[in-house]
Write a structure and sequence with these properties.
With about 120 residues, the chain is an alpha+beta fold. It has a single domain, classed as RNA-binding S4 domain (Structural Genomics Hypothetical 15.5 Kd Protein In mrcA-pckA Intergenic Region, Chain A, Roll). It is built from 4 helices and 5 strands; from the N terminus they run H-H-E-E-E-E-E-H-H. A 5-stranded antiparallel β-sheet has the order 2-1-3-4-5. Strand 3 and strand 4 form a beta hairpin. It is elongated. It starts with a helix and ends with a helix.
Amino acid sequence: MRIDKYIWAIRIFKTRSMATKACNSNKVKLNGEPVKPSKLIKQNDIIFIKVVPIWKSFKIIDLPKSRIGPKLVSDYTIETTSKTDLATLEQQEIMNRQNRSLGIMGRPTKKDRRKLGKLFD
């Protein structure tokens, strides 16, 4: 099975084209080596995927015939990323949530525009 099809089938990427782009931009490695999307994989290979700021690693248990449901992913792969890397990723997500403005972003709603109109009238 091709590596781009595999990482799409086990739901690491939402679309197959996103998986292909990740392979082409060296964000996917197979056993530590950058790969092209057409690289064939086999059982017990280890896939590394760049998720800023860390590399997530997955061990291939089995190859699915097509895209599988989220509940079945654990039958085909094991995440082998270290706990310290996962903690770093979680801390990064917390920082991103804290730095985001709360409810002020974007275009005002119709209700907000009416309130603004009343203020300026």
